[in-house]
Amino acid sequence: QFNFKRFPFDTQTLVINIKSGAHSESNIKVSWPKGFPSVTFVTPDKGAYIGLKKYLDNNFLNELGWSALSTNISSKLFFDKNYYDYYLDKTFSRSENSIDLNLEIKRNSAHYIFKIIIPVFLILCVAWSVLWIPTPKLDARLTTSIVALLSLIAYNFVFEGDIPKLDYLTNLDKYILLSYIFCCIPTFISIGFSRFIQKTVKMQKRVTKINSHIRKWGALIYLIITMQIFYS
Question: What is the pTM of this model?
């Protein structure tokens, strides 16, 4: 069961369970060999650890977009309250020892950084640059911000296949949603300022000052939230 909440900077654990096929049993009527209680333990020898060490040094996970970080072997006990034995035609409780081969892997995130995160950020920078255009030039501000927003929407369809479709938001989903919100802000600001510009000199100066504050603090807030998303 993978957890993609930190996608694309996520780390997953692959588990290979190896059952012994033998079980511990105190009931001599169902134990094997019959008439004797049995206790079964599964203990890996040093060859298993050597094999896992070799796998860390030489594997094909990089071709699949992952890197192997570490391996481990752990014991596990399965307990089945309603185990059905075909030969005895009986149902009884049964425990079975097994071992787990744990492989910790990390996703290679360079693909998502260079092909999704950075392009989305650059499109957002174009939209945010509208705040450097003088407030009286409403047409230029609206044209630039709307084109940037449409570009972000169109680019979303380009990388849509690279993002897992889940019933919860991953870190990358949160980043894209945040970028959409901040890409819309310059458009809303330009439309809002259109009611006040060119009325009075005093009002124009006030609008320009507010625009300057939004330009500075908005970019800072975006960067802080982005860092919070990926590094929290």
Answer: 0.80
